[in-house]
């Protein structure tokens, strides 16, 4: 949650590759699953065509 709350993601949005830099112990698949869980719980939303 601390990685997502960083201000740099407010401007450009979150991408898997950017989050992996902050979450050094996670693989790409693990980060994807985390993002999916956050979307399902309504904590983040996906913006189309970005």
Brief synopsis:
With 50 residues, the protein is mainly alpha-helical. 50% of the residues lie in helices and 0% in strands. The termini are far apart.
What report would you give on this structure?
By secondary structure, this protein is mainly α. It has a domain at 8-40. It is built from 3 helices and no strands. The protein has helices at residues 8-12, 16-22, 28-40. Helix 2 (16-22) crosses helix 3 (28-40). The longest helix has 13 residues, at 28-40.
Low-confidence stretches: none
**Total DSSP E strands:** 0
The average pLDDT is 85
State the distance separating the first and last CA atoms: 22 Å
**Helix and strand sequence:** HHH
Structural class: mainly alpha
Helix content: 40-55%
Largest sheet: none
Tertiary shape:
globular
Rg measurement, Å: 11 Å
Strand content is under 5%
**DSSP summary: helix tally:** 3
What's the topology here?
Blueprint: H1 8-12, H2 16-22, H3 28-40
Features:
mainly alpha
């Amino acid at each position: 949650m601390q990685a997502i709350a960083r201000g740099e993601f407010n401007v450009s949005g979150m991408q898997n590759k950017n989050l992996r830099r902050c979450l050094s112990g996670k693989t790409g698949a693990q980060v994807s699953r985390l993002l999916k869980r956050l979307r399902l719980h309504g904590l983040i939303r996906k913006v189309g065509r970005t």
